[in-house]
Structures are given as structure tokens and as C-alpha cells.
Recover the amino acids of this structure.
């Protein structure tokens, strides 16, 4: 069950999360969110479940979650009502990092474009899909999983807050904190957001491999520009990349 009273006690945002729909179980919160776009303005509405059975990551990869232990939700954002829709994934990652720090005092990092990293292992991810005037931000975070809960396919590359700080976290409180931070970040200036993301990035000035259109590019990751494009130094030449798969 979802403890609305706990959630509402910690929610400080004006718009984000003020309308929330909880499902005991659903295949995908992003898919559920798409069904709400035909109604009146859905900006800030949240879809959440404690049992997502068929979550998706980028490039249709499966996102594994554990019932009542993973935080899995989607927030609907009207792209006409935020300043920097082109860097929404960057804004979302910053909000998640800040919220996790606030609730657990754990310092997570970011791997471009949308992975939340803790101790060199993945703890969360973001999937943004567009429909009509809306952007649906799907977020999955490993919160209260024990090591034995993690799926065998991802066990060596993933972790959870529970594994790293040894305490249980109320999913409702973490959700409220993320929504609070997300709304605040959406009102910040572009320069602040880019600099904050860079301060959380785990591979600045490191050699990376980048797969773009089936081609492999190797170079030094130098950062991101104001539009969220990757800046890579390849043989002393600067290249800007908008999308692809990166390995550190």
C-alpha cells in the first residue's frame, strides 16, 4: 500500500506530485502515464507503483525492480511549462542525487546520460518519453533491496541504498524529496544546472568509449554544453554528441 499521509507530510512542491495515482501493480508507470494525457492539464501528475512488472530502460532494456523495495514512478511534465526541456534528463538526475543525499547522506554520482551510480555500480535510471506536449519522466531506483534481491543479470553491476547504508528508507519520503528537488531544479538557471551536473559526473576527464550509429568513438569526456550534448576530445579535436551508448 502507499502511505499518502507520510508522502504529503514531506511534499513541499507547489505542482509536482499534487495529483498522484497509485497502482498496487502495473507493468510500466510510463505506459500508465500516457493514458492520462488525454485529460485536463496533467502537468506535475505522478504515477507510482510498488510492483512494476515490466519496466523499461533506454533502448528497450528491461528495468528490474523488487516489489515494495524499489522506487518506481513517472511524472508527467508539460514541456511548455519548464524552461529547459532539452536538458530534462540532466535536471532529473540532479534532483535524484540531491534527494538521496538528503534522506540517506549517501553521495551518488551520474553517468551520462541517465544512470545514477553508487560505488561504481548502478543504483537508478531515468527514461524520458515524449507524447503530445508532454514529457513523461520514468524513474527507477534501487532503495531497500538486499544483495540477494538483485536480479542475476544485473547483480554484479547494480546496488541499492540499503546495501550501502544499512538502513531502510520510506519510499514515500524519498518520492516526496525527489519531487521537491525536481520542481526546484526546473526553476534554476541553465548555468547552475550544467555546473551542478558536472560536479556529480563520475567520468569527467576520463577516457570513454562511445557507440554512435554502430560506430565506436574513443576519447576523453570533457563535459556537457548548455544543451546537454557531450563534449569529447578526440585526438585534440572537440566533438559534440547528442545521443548514444557510452562505456567508461
Amino acid at each position: 500500500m502507499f502511505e499518502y499521509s507520510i508522502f504529503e507530510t514531506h511534499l513541499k512542491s507547489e505542482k509536482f506530485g499534487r495529483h498522484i495515482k497509485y497502482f498496487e501493480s502495473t507493468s510500466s508507470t510510463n505506459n500508465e502515464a500516457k493514458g492520462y494525457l488525454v485529460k485536463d492539464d496533467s502537468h506535475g501528475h505522478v504515477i507510482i507503483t510498488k510492483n512494476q512488472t515490466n519496466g523499461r530502460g533506454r533502448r528497450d532494456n528491461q528495468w528490474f525492480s523488487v516489489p515494495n523495495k524499489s522506487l518506481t514512478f513517472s511524472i508527467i511534465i508539460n514541456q511548455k511549462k519548464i524552461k529547459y526541456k532539452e536538458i530534462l534528463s540532466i535536471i532529473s538526475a540532479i534532483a535524484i542525487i540531491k534527494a538521496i543525499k538528503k534522506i540517506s547522506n549517501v553521495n551518488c554520482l551520474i553517468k551520462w546520460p541517465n544512470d545514477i551510480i553508487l560505488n561504481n555500480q548502478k543504483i537508478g535510471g531515468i527514461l524520458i518519453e515524449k507524447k503530445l506536449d508532454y514529457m513523461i519522466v520514468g524513474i527507477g531506483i534501487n532503495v531497500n533491496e538486499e544483495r540477494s534481491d538483485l536480479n542475476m543479470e544485473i547483480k554484479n553491476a547494480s546496488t541499492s541504498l540499503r546495501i550501502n547504508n544499512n538502513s531502510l528508507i520510506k519510499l514515500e519520503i524519498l518520492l516526496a524529496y525527489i519531487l521537491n528537488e525536481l520542481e526546484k531544479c526546473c526553476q534554476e538557471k541553465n548555468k547552475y544546472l550544467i555546473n551542478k551536473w558536472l560536479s556529480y559526473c563520475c567520468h569527467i576527464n576520463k577516457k570513454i568509449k562511445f557507440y554512435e550509429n554502430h560506430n565506436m568513438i574513443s576519447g576523453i569526456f570533457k563535459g556537457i554544453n548548455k544543451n546537454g550534448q557531450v563534449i569529447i576530445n578526440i585526438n585534440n579535436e572537440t566533438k559534440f554528441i547528442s545521443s548514444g551508448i557510452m562505456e567508461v
